[in-house]
Sequence to fold (338 residues):
Amino acid sequence: MNILLTGGTGYIGSHVATALISAGHQVVCFDNLANSDAAVIDRLAAITGTAVPLVVGDIRDGDALRGAMADHDVEAVIHFAGLKAVGESVAEPMKYYDNNVRGTLSLVQAMADCGVKTMVFSSSATVYGQPQYLPLDENHPTAATNPYGRTKLMIEEMLADIAASDPEWRIATLRYFNPVGAHDSGLIGENPNGIPNNLMPFISRVAAGRLNELSVFGSDYDTPDGTGVRDYIHVVDLADGHVAALDAIVQAAPGLSTWNLGTGQGYSVLDMVRAFERVNGVRIPYRLAPRRDGDVASCYASPERAAQELGWTAQRDLDAMCASSWSFERTLAMRNTG
Fold:
């Protein structure tokens, strides 16, 4: 299939691009480069041996989307383009509703105009809000606790309404838990502009001396060591989950399906720090800081539905997540000094 990846040069989008190409698909990346680098396209070519087209554009620009879909004979869309920092969403909610919700509406309108009605949406476990039970399965009530999560939930509900209104739509919503790690090549990984909002790239930059210390937000949660517990999943496993989901919805009856992509195992922030230190032989200075608005104490997946319906399970362990993250960070350092 010819597949358009919105946000395709970003962290998750670039890894999914490699997985799709390995599975025999053709991809085109559509990205405004707000939090990514166009040089990722060259790295994708180095990894896959395939030239990957890049269309620089914003998902709120319907004409640009329609042009990209027409020019590349697009048959399906995987939608990653979204702002994703919880803290920033609390401080700047209008920015998040504009980009995430309005942008997705623009995208599905352009898809409908072009007759493209197969979509995989990058959602988030944040749609579950404060867990009522753990592990979280797909039947858990949804009640997001921050603007970022609410944008994801609004989009899920919008897509459900669209799928119900038109029997030609085939949509998968994938509720990610916490993607970490990097491609084995070391060429692509998580490299956000500015100060990272996610844990692993922050740890990696502290280990490399690019940042002085890690801020651990919240040390008084009801968890074994007081720090937040999350389900961390290797980004390459996550990418494989997208290929499995796309295959499933193409072959299944039309409609909307939802799957968790996680491991089912929770690790605390301090667990992650200690694992990174042990695996990579480095030291991670940290300080305990107040909780962030909108965070929950513990959040980890029940991944059984994806295993049963997609034949997909996460294969890579915490050591692999830490080792690949550090390999990517060192590759970045060599690239920046070379």
